[in-house]
Amino acid sequence: MTTAGALAQGYEMAQSVAKDLGKRPKASDLPQAEDRPYEIKPFWDVGGKGRAWLDFQNDVTTKDVKQAAQENFRSVEHMKRYTTQGMATDQGKNSNVTALAVLADATGRGIPETGTTTFRPPYVPVAMAALGAGGHGKGFAPERFLTSDRATRALNAPMIEVGLWFRPSYFPKDGETHWRQACDREVSMVRTAVGVCDVSTLGKIDIQGPDAAAFLDLLYTNLFAFLKVGRVRYGLMLREDGHVMDDGTCARLGERHYLMTTTTAAASQVVRHMDFVHQALRPDLDVSFTSVTEHWAQFAVAGPQARALLNGILDRKISDKTMPYMGCGAVQLGGIAGRLFRISFSGEHAYELAVPARYGDSLFRLLLTRADALGGGPYGMEALNVLRLEKGFITHAEIHGRTTAFDIGMGRMISDKKDCIGKSMAARPGLNGPERDQLVGLRPVGAVKQIIPGAHLFEPDATPIRQNDQGYVTSMCYSPTIKSIIAQAFLCDGRNRMGQTVKMVEHLSGVTTLCEVCNPVFFDPEGGRLRG
Q1: What residues have CB less than 8 Å from 473, skipping those under 6 apart?
Q2: Which class would CATH give 41-132?
Q3: Which residues, including other chains, have CB under 8 Å from residue 370's CB and lie 6 or more apart?
């Protein structure tokens, strides 16, 4: 414990190591150093005018402990209850020893005579094996099921996991031997008749309060304060670093009442973000919000016959006047209160009908019966992906955490009339401009017709190496509407390269494809079908 002792011990060890290596080290004198006996004295309380904190979780000071002793709460258990020291989640892990020493000094006793308090887990570390005892098989991750799960499985739909939810991939029919056959049929069905898709997994956040509009204006890049009651608006949300966090719609149900929808994958992330913004950035706003995702079963009804289907089950018929595009409102089905939103993720005339979750199974079966009579039926995730790609809509394949509003062509959605989370950071040099990878569409134009997500893009004559990289593919599908493979990709200065040819190279499989750069909106770019 002294400098001289440390030098002596080090010298001895060095001599021993040298001898073990077969050397003959010469003796040397050690430098003179302090060699006083090691003595420590208890010094628990520095004193002074300021507060001397003991328990940071419960805000207990040394003064509180001394006050307990003065009022004759001399037992450690009494002091603990008088001051709440050691009663927080750490059970005194960071304060017990010092607090007991201060109490000992205040009562003129030693620490052994003063005693210790009873502490509880996790004061002693808990083994990971104990925490993860059930973490295997189905216990490893929760499983979330739609209200339509039984009806969906009865139709032999293969299920895929999306954000812990199990959703139907496609709905095979007799004679179909490949998933593409079912997918192509479902896409054509939505384009020509009507399709039904369970979209209950979308995050649904109920927002209420006098300052709800101001809160939404802070969260979203675009304005929501002037959104009229009974209307829906698409919104884009940024992280604090200026990159896109999520997108979705927000409906104004009342003067102080909104319903936000998020993507399935980002629902919990968005709620955490809202909690942080409200508690840390704007605690002054009078607003409350809660996740109601599991409270409502929600179904997309899309296609030219969508309105006819709904008018066959709603208590009151709807029209373009009563339910215009991007409108919303309360409806009833056989006396059951529900909500109707005229929004579309397919590019078709479409609605989303929501009812309390306990009616979800019954409504899904009813919708399928009505759809079948109109030449339609259910469609799954595969068809949903094709429909959105044909229309140029994005998912988290495109807003994957490294893209900005500029990259996806939505830079103008960042309003110049207000501030919002991430606005200043999104304007940083390097997050805008032609050097950025920008969202484009791709179609194969050569002999090879494959486009593979994750593959990289190069100039047609360039060597496919990292230094020549021009971008990458995010999503692809075969479009039965366009009769072609189509894809979305990020390409350097992509919006100024429409009509050019690029080379897609997928190094793992060795596939090379020449692609035409085109508008990511392949189908109905004017939007007449979803508005009609």
Answers
A1: 442, 451, 452, 453, 454, 455, 456, 457, 487, 488, 489, 504
A2: mainly alpha
A3: 309, 312, 313
- Distance, in Å, from the CA atom of 197 to the CA atom of 367, rounded to the nearest integer, reads 10
Q: Using CA atoms, how far apart are residues 418 and 414, in angstroms rounded to an integer?
A: 9
Give 94-140 as a DSSP string. Answer: TTHHHHHHHHHHHHT--HHHH------TTSSPPPHHHHTTT-SGGGS
CA distance 147 to 152: 9
Same fold, 41-132 and 434-532: no
State how far the Cα of 68 lies from the Cα of 383, in Å rounded to an integer.
Answer: 70
End-to-end, the C-alpha distance of the chain in Å comes to: 86
Tens of each residue's pLDDT in the chain, 532 residues: 889 999 999 999 999 999 999 998 888 889 988 888 877 788 888 878 888 999 999 999 999 999 999 999 988 889 999 999 988 888 787 888 899 899 999 998 888 888 887 766 666 777 878 877 777 777 777 889 999 999 999 999 999 998 889 999 999 999 999 999 999 999 999 999 999 999 999 999 999 999 999 999 999 999 999 999 999 999 999 999 999 999 999 999 999 999 999 999 999 999 999 999 999 999 999 999 999 999 999 999 999 999 999 999 999 999 999 999 999 999 999 999 999 999 999 999 999 999 999 999 999 999 999 999 999 999 999 999 999 999 999 999 999 999 999 999 999 999 999 999 999 999 999 999 999 999 999 999 989 999 999 999 999 999 999 999 999 999 999 999 999 999 999 999 999 999 999 999 999 999 999 999 999 999 999 999 999 8
Q: Does an H or E element contain 352, and which?
A: strand 350-356
In the block, residue with structure tokens 């989303």: 352
Note the CATH number of domain 434-532. 2.40.30.110
pTM for the structure as a whole: 0.77
Give the sheet arrangement for strand 350-356, strand by strand: 328-333, 336-341, 350-356, 296-302, 195-198, 377-378
Q: Which residues pair with 34 in a beta bridge?
A: none
CA distances in angstroms from 280 to 212, 245, 258, 404, listed in the order given: 16, 18, 22, 24
User: Are the CB atoms for 515 and 443 separated by under 8 Å?
Assistant: yes
CA–CA separation, 17 vs 7, rounded Å? 15
Domain ranges, ordered by start, for the chain:
1-36, 41-132, 434-532
Q: What length is written for the chain? A: 532
Asked if residue 475 lies in contact with residue 385, where contact means CB atoms within 8 angstroms, the answer is yes
* H-run or E-run covering 310: helix 306-311
Is the alpha carbon torsion for 79, 81, 84, 90 positive or negative? positive
How many other C-beta atoms are found inside a 10 Å radius of the C-beta of residue 385? 19
Strands 195-198 and 377-378: parallel
How far, in Å, CA of 306 to CA of 191, rounded?
11
